[in-house]
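Table S5 (text form). Sequence records supplied for joint modeling of the two-component complex.
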Amino acid sequence: MLAFLIQRVLQAIFVMVVVALIAFSLFHYVGDPVLNMVGQEATEADRAALRARLGLDQPLPIQFFQFIANAAQFEFGISYRSARPVTDMIVERLPATLELAIISAIFAVVMGIVLGIYTALNRGSWLSNFIMTASLIGVSLPTFLIGVLLIYLFAVELGWLPAFGRGQTVPVGDWWTTGLLTTSGLRSLILPAITLGLFQLTLIMRLVRAEMLEVLRADYIKFARARGLSKRVVNLRHALKNTLIPVITIIGLQLGTIIAFAIITETVFQWPGVGALFITAVRFVDIPVMAAYLMMIALVFVVINLIVDLLYYAVDPRLRVQGGAK
Amino acid sequence: MSSTPSFDSPRGGDTAAVPVLSVRELRVEFPTRHGTLVALDSVSFDIAPGEVLGVVGESGAGKSMTGNAVIQLLEPPGHIAGGEVHLGAKRIDNLDEDAFVPLRGRHIGMIFQDPLTSLNPLFSVGEQLIETIRTHLPLNHKQARERALELLREVGIPAPENRLDAYPHQFSGGMRQRVVIALALAAEPELVIADEPTTALDVSVQAQILALLKRLCAERGTAVMLVTHDMGVIAETADRVAVMYAGRLIEIGPVEAVIRDPQHPYTRGLMASIPGIETSRERLYQIEGSMPRLAAIPAGCAFNPRCPHAVERCRSERPELLPAGTSRAACWLHDPTDPVIPVSEEVAADGH
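The corresponding structure-token record, covering 678 residues in total, follows.
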């Protein structure tokens, strides 16, 4: 168990270093940032001074090492555009993104599993067929289109929900602001959360349904029924637990995707999150912000993968309890 | 081996005459796009309390189907389309799923072929035993655990108190099948349907498992419907044997009689094709042709295209089970009013 954990952590560190290399190389292949930052009237001396301040005069390996050392302390330098520390910029926008991502992940996972179970157990009923058909829309429509359609229907036509922004937020603790405690914040969250979660929901639902149908054909399910266990126990205890093992992996990966692809939803709804920050950074070639964002997303994926591996251990005794068969 | 059915079992009492299971004219159909397949056609038999009825036949003959139909675990779209099934005095074929659930495990237990896949890999053996026991018996968790330990001890799991919290993958195949037997017998059902219970096991373990099953059922007076294609298993375990062919029951009788003096031409072929130590042949006997697919069962007797004795009547009229010696066989050879003159072996051989 411990060996497994150490191995996984080492793998995670390796992945992070590789991503850091990619993030770092951004600095050198996307033009000279100094030229973008200083005005046209700047002298060569001004440029050299700025270069030195940004550490761009050092040899490459030293710069890279410095980059990793700083990144390990969540230090990503200064934004080329706003001249503020990148970490501060991300931290102040992180709550918006995380709240959106977590709420839409909960929405996607809960609804996905419930609908997946329902459509698997009631195969062929008109409601299942309707849900399956509707899910095709969720899978095939691009996120931004769903967002725009939802805005048109619920914000423009019906006027029930706000079309953009995060609503009113209140501070919690030192640096976290939340929209979950105000009515306008919650109302603002509904449309973007649905937009962001819909694709994941349909994906999880279809996966749960397929896995569940597979598991329901298994011998141990037939034997569980032959033992006289009630339908409820067979379906929700025996079948569901086996169904969830492969589903956990996908859910884990999808959570990462939700955070990464919040970019589009945040743009559509003008949500003041990290994704919107990244889009602005791309527009202005603000490399430190882009690099920091890349590292952050990589970290999210790596951490989630680690958690998924550990969850496997918790759920599947075949991994947890070794052999012992006589 | 072939002990007479124990009518004096505790459950038997004065209702000894009532069979545990009585199947009458059972018909199972599978509707498909290309028409309805008849998987079981007019299958009738009884099992007395404490009796072991062996059900034999080739793959696809309908032996497992019969067991699944009795306990109503047919794979959809298969369904019972006719006939009656009585458990004791109660008719059970017309019960809906909710009414049937309480019968499973409590009155009819079932054992499947593959012990490796019969147990849920994510729950410990103890959890699966305790949930089964508590489903059927009014015991609290602690009492159920005691009973689970007792069951494991009975089926011959060494040191059950250490094994109760182990997971199925920590047991060998034979040990897992012992656990499966413990699960099937947990609520002391009157009837156990054992569907190829030893087929997936090593030969050395098969005999142990059969002996265990037979002993436990004899102790409890439990009737057994033993589905297998292995005549050796039947000879060793069953009191009576039913032979199936193309979804029909073609011969049923005491195990000695069916093995030593088979009455249906198919059964004769089946027995002749079993390799024996005494009978040394250059080549094993084999029945010409193969069992028809369900979609193409011939009119009359299903065996007629392969039968050396077939006459015109066999191709048009389906024989019922007729008394034949101490058995009953579905063959016109045994029709007392119009017996078909058996074609002598020589002529039959020439005909090939």
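Note: Chain A touches chain B through 27 residues (CB under 8 Å).
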